[in-house]
Automatic annotation (TrEMBL):
Pfam families linked to this entry: DUF4397
Superkingdom, natural source: Bacteria
Name of the molecule in the record: DUF4397 domain-containing protein
Domain DUF4397: 64-176
């Protein structure tokens, strides 16, 4: 996780910077510089533990992470409301959850290190108390942002998982235990299946063309731990490079 104290400071300084923008230019610059320093600190300092959210979301806040799932897109920088939050994010990379206030956000995606013009900009109303994954999906010629609602908190001893189809040229798919029962059925591109309860331990999975026994991807030895929620993302290309692959993320 990112350093939540630094993130909170960054948001407070941003509010002060906005307040003084037309009232006191010197105060605006001072608080904006403090905001940037706090953001930098949050990006560089990670709190101990995994990316699994701990406890509950703070009142008025939400959790947000970003996945780069566009197979032919270069590494990107990601901005929220004009502020850099993630830099040099490459294909298949998923960030930790970032805790931010609920509200209206503009997400701008730029080629890494090049802020001349965003390759994609979209506005989202993100509600407090909810965890989101925003996936940049599709090919560069048809790039889209897909907001996915996560439910990463689990009851004691519970293990659960959901599946998200982000391969732009793959048909609808089933996800099944290797040679066995289907876990997620007939999931098309840009759609997310609901969470299901899964047994803790290692399991071999396979992705099949929906309604058939045709296996398009084997996913061996997937490790599910107790007291944890997971999302399995199908990324890459069914007919091309980078090839079809699975990204397993906590949450």
């Amino acid at each position: 996780m990112y350093d939540q104290n630094a993130l909170w400071q960054a948001m407070v300084y941003d509010l002060y910077a906005c307040y003084y923008k037309y009232r006191d230019p010197r105060a605006h610059i001072m608080y904006y510089q403090k905001h940037l320093q706090a953001v930098q600190s949050a990006m560089q300092t990670r709190a101990a533990g995994s990316s699994q959210p701990q406890g509950q979301i703070s009142p008025g806040m939400l959790l947000l992470r970003v996945l780069h799932a566009s197979p032919d897109a270069p590494a990107v920088d990601i901005y929220l409301n004009g502020r850099l939050v993630l830099s040099n994010v490459s294909f298949k990379q998923i960030s930790d959850y970032l805790q931010i206030p609920g509200g209206q956000y503009r997400v701008d995606i730029y080629p890494a290190g090049n802020q001349s013009s965003p390759v994609l900009s979209e506005n989202f109303l993100l509600m407090p108390g909810i965890a989101y994954t925003v996936a940049a999906a599709g090919t560069v010629s048809n790039l889209k942002l897909l907001p996915i609602v996560d439910r990463p908190f689990v009851s004691g001893g519970e293990t659960k998982a959901k599946f998200v189809h982000l391969s732009p040229d793959a048909p609808a798919v089933d996800v099944a235990v290797k040679g066995g029962d289907i876990l997620f059925s007939n999931i098309p591109f840009m759609k997310s299946a609901k969470y299901i309860t899964v047994p803790a331990g290692k399991i071999d999975l396979e992705v099949r063309v929906a309604g058939t026994d045709t296996v398009v991807l084997n996913v061996p030895k997937v490790q599910f731990k107790a007291d944890t929620a997971y999302t399995i993302f199908a990324v890459g290309l069914a007919n091309g490079n980078p090839p079809l692959d699975a990204v397993l993320a906590v949450g």
